[in-house]
Design brief:
The structure is a homotrimer of 140-residue chains. Chain A is an alpha+beta fold and 140 residues long. In chain A, 25% of the residues lie in helices and 39% in strands. In chain A, strand 5 and strand 6 form a beta hairpin.
């Protein structure tokens, strides 16, 4: 059995957005007991991660780390047409994930106790931004 | 045909643990000729990589590189509740992989000659630690 | 329905090679309407990324970034048997992707407007080098 759907995340500037419940709720409706879930983001300046979901400081520290490793406005970058966060957003996207594949077990996403699914918006847009995500469930 | 099973890696401190044979042995029993294998780790401070399997120095150098790029005890990190290697373990996990998807061809994992599957334990626990891995095989 | 095939990229030194059309053309022949495409590279010194495909400066900047983050000839590396770019190639491979999984929607790869599929050759071989890629399509 296959189920595929698309949804939009309204990001409000750089940061991580929890999409775990959105995906798990759809899985419950799909009625698949065992198989795989694929989550895919259709952008090159936003990405997906599985991250510790208990202490928000973990996600703040991830931002701190990335800001240190890939600084905005670094003069080594040539592609700056959309601003100082443009090329760093592409680098952050390449270093994390465009897609996650997660097992389905017992009708649920088989995530570990502390694993949440996050869309990571890497652009600093002050206004809301729409990010498209496709989820594909497949199994019995 | 779907086959899914879970196993545990007993890690003994930071380092890489070869799980290629464990997975290939199960695939031989599953009797799937062509398809995909998904390997998933249920943690946010351990991860998975495909890595050169001939010279152990490659994996030592990966440790050296990570220790340099994400130093333990870096004062920029706020999430330090479990010690100086706590937040670096989460960063290392995000920069590598929670899941690997590998083709099955001719009844075997279609790995390159030098590709091994490794669980990478990022915590420095001096005592053994259990890490859960789910493998999902799917194919004809 | 499953379709699996293998092809070779002839790389000519370090850099990114667009393989989007190669894969999409095969998908059109496979006649799969909805499902998933898995792209896998059988090497540990070349990798796969989804990257912005409009401005070539983005890929030049990715090279600049990687050359800065993982410098060739860094004396911290022990595995140097094939030259100063040997171990950096393995690190770059681990930090990017051995496999990409992309949804198939409406008979096509459901890539975003600016997403291209690239093989990233990390070795500086002056002579052409063959890189093997396996593509697995699965769906209805």
């Amino acid at each position: 059995m296959w189920r595929q759907y698309k949804f939009t995340v309204r990001s409000r500037g750089r940061g991580t957005y929890d999409i775990t419940r959105e995906i798990n709720d759809h899985l419950l409706q799909a009625g698949i007991t065992m198989g795989l879930a694929n989550v895919f983001v259709h952008h090159t300046s936003a990405s997906l991660i599985l991250c510790e979901n208990a202490d928000p400081a973990v996600r703040r520290d991830l931002e701190t780390f990335m800001a240190h490793m890939v600084p905005d406005g670094d003069p080594m970058f040539e592609h700056i047409s959309e601003g100082p966060d443009d090329m760093p957003a592409h680098v952050r996207s390449v270093l994390t994930h465009n897609a996650l594949t997660i097992p389905i077990t017992g009708g649920q996403l088989a995530l570990g106790t502390w694993q949440g699914i996050y869309l990571w918006e890497h652009r600093k847009h002050p206004h809301p931004h729409s990010r498209s995500v496709t989820v594909t469930f497949h199994g019995d």
